[in-house]
Amino acid sequence: MSDHESTYVPKTAIERWMDTRLPIIRFGMDYANLPTPRNLNYWWTFGGILALCLMTQIITGVVLAMHYTPNTALAFESVERIMRDVNGGWLIRYVHANGASMFFIAVYLHMLRGLYYGSYKAPREMIWIVGCLIFFLMIATAFLGYVLPWGQMSFWGAEVITNLIGAIPVVGEPILIWLRGGPAIDNATLNRFFSLHYLLPFVIAGCVVLHLWALHAAGQNNPVGILIPKDRQKKDMLPFHPYFTVKDGFAIILFLILFAVFVFYQPNALGHADNYIPANPLQTPAHIVPEWYMLPFYAILRAIPDKFGGVVAMFAAIGVLFVLPWLDTSKVRSMRYRPTMKTFFIIFLFVCFGLGWCGAQLPDAPVIGSFKTFTLIDGDLNSYLWLTRFLTAYYFIFFLVLMPIIGLREKPLPIPATISEPVLSGDAEQKG
């Protein structure tokens, strides 16, 4: 698909003038006419959904910034004023708050699709790496935004997470002081977080352009996971518009229905009740937890008994995704034809859900009621802490051990020669 030639022909004098100076119209038309594998399923619609989520967050965020006051004495009241006194403020705030959760739902499904179908393999490594960078920036942006309402969970979440940075040897303390604007979380901290939270979505938008650029150069993957030869492109590919724009549009409508259910009927279901209490540095909440989409990484952080080791493990859980194209040694992309790896992938999904669940629990709470088993030095073997450690171990084993070894030893199923041909027993061509 990287060899796709432009078919756009400027028809008016203005188009010709623009085309010789800033060919943005050509770029848009070429993307609409981009040859796309005809067998893409609905898992490929999350790219369009994510674009919609990003635009929604930027637009609502800009409007909220017009009314928000980044001051520790006024921030909580300014959010409440938005909800009560600004015309449509309640709707804008709920769309923005729930939009973050919708954004992460879509991005997790998008990444899991890429993981299952091997969309990170050559020649699409840069697509995956830029996507992981977007994911990291999303986490940073979401954390910064979580602090801005200046409720109890906002303040103490910022206290816990920023303290982790101080655990980094040598450079941790200076970075912590710079980020907070002083030795403690105060007005300077809120101003910094507000500025960065406003800036980072535009950085994400720039990375999305790079993501699309890399996609345009390397081409789309497909559920079969085979490269489409030039002589098959007319049979195995269709223009992106109108075939896949219609498909994306239908998926977006369904996604918006889910989005609307939360905004209008359960606007606070994905948040924390303590964040409706003004921040109080003298009163620590009974249980400090981040938003649900950060819970798996928070669980990994708590799984390590050493503070600095926990920080390393948490960032390594994200960092391992960046090197994934070189960890998977299999020549077959799609796990549809890798039964052994598919089994471990399904286990990996349950592990991710388990980490999220453990991240929301008290680490020393018993897993099975008050049942007590024999104890170790660190506490009860039946606690969430030990379950979290087991799940954390599998998370890293999946990427660092299983992927390289199974990729070398697994015997994949026969793969069809083209995406439009069925798999025939005995004569299907093995391709990566």
UniProtKB/TrEMBL annotation:
PROSITE patterns: CYTB_CTER, CYTB_NTER. Its main location: membrane. It holds the Pfam family Cytochrome_B. Gene3D superfamilies: Cytochrome Bc1 Complex, Chain C. Binds 2 heme groups non-covalently. Residues 14-224 form the Cytochrome b/b6 N-terminal region profile domain. It is found in: Membrane. Its cofactor is heme b. Keywords: Electron transport, Heme, Iron, Membrane, Metal-binding, Respiratory chain, Transmembrane, Transmembrane helix, Transport. InterPro entries: Cyt_b/b6_C (IPR005798), Cyt_b/b6_C_sf (IPR036150), Cyt_b/b6_N (IPR005797), Cytb/b6-like_sf (IPR027387), Cytochrome_b (IPR030689), Cytochrome_b_C_euk/bac (IPR048260), Cytochrome_b_N_euk/bac (IPR048259), Di-haem_cyt_TM (IPR016174). Residues 230-417 form the Cytochrome b/b6 C-terminal region profile domain. It is a multi-pass membrane protein. The chain crosses the membrane at residues 42-69, 90-111, 126-148, 160-179, 199-219, 240-265, 308-327, 343-363, 383-406. Belongs to the cytochrome b family. PANTHER family: CYTOCHROME B. Component of the ubiquinol-cytochrome c reductase complex (complex III or cytochrome b-c1 complex), which is a respiratory chain that generates an electrochemical potential coupled to ATP synthesis. The main subunits of complex b-c1 are: cytochrome b, cytochrome c1 and the Rieske protein. This is Cytochrome b. It comes from Brevundimonas faecalis.
